[in-house]
Design a protein that fits this description.
Elements: E1 3-15, E2 18-25, E3 39-44, E4 48-53, E5 64-69, H1 77-84, E6 90-94, E7 107-113, H2 117-129, E8 134-140, H3 149-154, E9 161-165, H4 176-179, E10 187-193, H5 195-207, E11 215-219, E12 233-237, E13 243-246, H6 252-257, E14 277-281, E15 284-285, H7 293-298, E16 301-302, E17 308-309, E18 313-316
Parallel strand pairs: 7-8, 7-10, 8-9, 10-11, 12-18
Antiparallel strand pairs: 1-2, 1-6, 2-5, 3-4, 12-13, 14-16, 14-18, 15-17
Length: 318
């Protein structure tokens, strides 16, 4: 994918443990256009690459804005952004991609959990520009941990936003069953946030009879996997016939890299799709959050950063 060199124009503490970064081209030129729901890959000092949703107005071409939650369980990405990236620094990013596009609908419900507000903030801005019918429900642990709260309160569409705080009284907490009680063919639901939050909303929508095609989601991170039953298996490279053993405590990506075969990765959790690889033979054990159930059932591609094999051998199109 194409890469861009950008400068950090502004770093802002948006809430407790959340910082935003405003990025612009080093040469001052316009940035490539993007649509609501898009994300970019950011190369973080130390060699890691992580994905962050764009949360500014999608009609802007002079800047990209991202927001990063400092995760106590960080594998280096969020800690690196908070501790090492400062105003004036130069970073390498990808051009925007969109796996979470906004579609036209009679009505749109946006449900954000924590830092999951970032793509939905961009969507809200877009829907407001279109004078579309929408609501944004923003759930956070507390007001102090709610990024962009003042910005949203000052927006012309602030009356369409409902805040829900975990530490608040029961009456103001999100009641997903009530909100989604009446499925409507012309209403689309977008949900983003921690895996537990998304699973709750999606599960509620399913139980209430919502059409799966009207419920759109984007995970920011995968839930922990139980790996106690993992065993070893073999991957074979179709082009060369080379076989590589994947140990029980190794990912396919790690095993291949040890033999000089590199697959590009980003999130390393099966969320982003950067490492998707074609499978020619064998049965996959999908552990990603990227593919739909139908795509997993097709068994013709997988995410080697986290997924494994049910069969003894997987033949990969490498």
């Amino acid at each position: 994918m194409d890469q861009l060199t950008v400068k950090v124009l502004r770093k802002t503490q948006e809430a407790q443990d959340i910082a935003s970064f405003e990025l612009a081209r080093v040469d001052g030129g316009p940035l490539p256009a993007f649509s609501a729901g898009s994300h970019i890959d950011v190369q973080i000092p130390g060699g890691l690459t992580r994905q962050y949703s764009l949360c500014n107005d999608d009609q802007e071409s002079h800047r990209y804005r991202i927001a990063v939650l400092r995760d106590a369980a960080s594998r280096g990405g969020s800690q690196g952004m908070h501790a090492q990236v400062q105003e004036g620094d130069v970073l390498t990013i990808s051009t925007p991609r969109n796996h979470f596009p906004l579609v036209r609908a009679e009505r749109t419900l946006l449900l954000a959990g924590g830092i999951g507000v970032t793509p939905l903030l961009c969507m809200a801005q877009r829907l407001a520009t279109l004078s579309a019918d929408f609501e944004l429900h923003y759930c956070a642990r507390s007001a102090e941990r709610t990024a962009f709260r003042a910005e949203i309160a000052a927006a012309p569409w602030a009356q369409r936003v409902h805040f829900h705080f975990d530490d608040g009284d029961a009456a103001q907490k999100l009641d997903a069953a009530r909100l989604l009680a009446t499925p409507a063919a012309g209403t689309h639901v977008y949900v983003c946030g921690p895996a537990g939050f998304i699973d709750h909303v999606v599960g509620t929508a399913k139980a209430q009879g919502w059409d799966q095609a009207n419920v759109h989601l984007e995970y920011f991170g995968a839930a922990p996997q139980d790996t106690s039953g993992d065993g070893s298996f073999t991957v074979r490279i179709a082009s060369s016939g080379q076989s590589v053993t994947v140990a029980k405590d190794q990912s396919v990506v790690q095993a291949l890299l040890a033999h000089g075969i590199e697959i590009m990765t980003s999130c390393e959790q099966g969320v982003c799709g950067t490492c998707v690889t074609r499978v020619l033979e064998g049965e996959c054990e999908h552990r990603d959050l990227y593919f739909t159930d139908a795509e997993k059932a097709a068994n013709d591609q997988f995410t080697p950063c986290c997924s494994r094999a049910k069969s003894a051998v997987l033949v990969l199109d490498l």
